[in-house]
Amino acid sequence: MRRSLLLLTMFGLAACSEQERTYTVEELVADEALLSSIIMKCRNNPGELRDTATCQNAESAGGKLRLQRMRQSLGG
After folding, report:
1. Can you give 41-72 as a three-state secondary structure string?
2. pTM for the complete prediction?
3. How buried is 28 (Cβ within 10 angstroms: 0-12 exposed, 13-18 middle, 19+ buried)?
4. d(CA 45, CA 12)
5. From CA 66, how far away is CA 71, in angstroms rounded?
6. Interval 45-73 mean pLDDT
7. What's the rounded Cα separation, in Å, for the pair 47 and 42?
8. How confident is the model at residue 43 (pLDDT cuts 50, 70, 90)?
9. What distance in Å separates the CA atoms of residue 33 and residue 21, rounded to the nearest whole number?
10. pLDDT at 10 exceeding the cut of 70
């Protein structure tokens, strides 16, 4: 019985550890295609993904890119 419980716990922990990679703001700014796909995924499932580090970083990277484009368009 204890062995079964231990195995079940180990399998449960293994399943939880298979998380998606967390991307940094810099990585997302450098790869706009990746940024776009992550933002789309996060916005399609905000209840589960809004508070994840990758979604927060994607929103920050999107804001950073918008500011860079605004500066460029203003000649700065």
Report:
1. HHHHCHHHHCCCHHHHHHHHHHHHHHHHHHHH
2. 0.71
3. buried
4. 24
5. 9
6. 95
7. 9
8. very high
9. 16
10. no
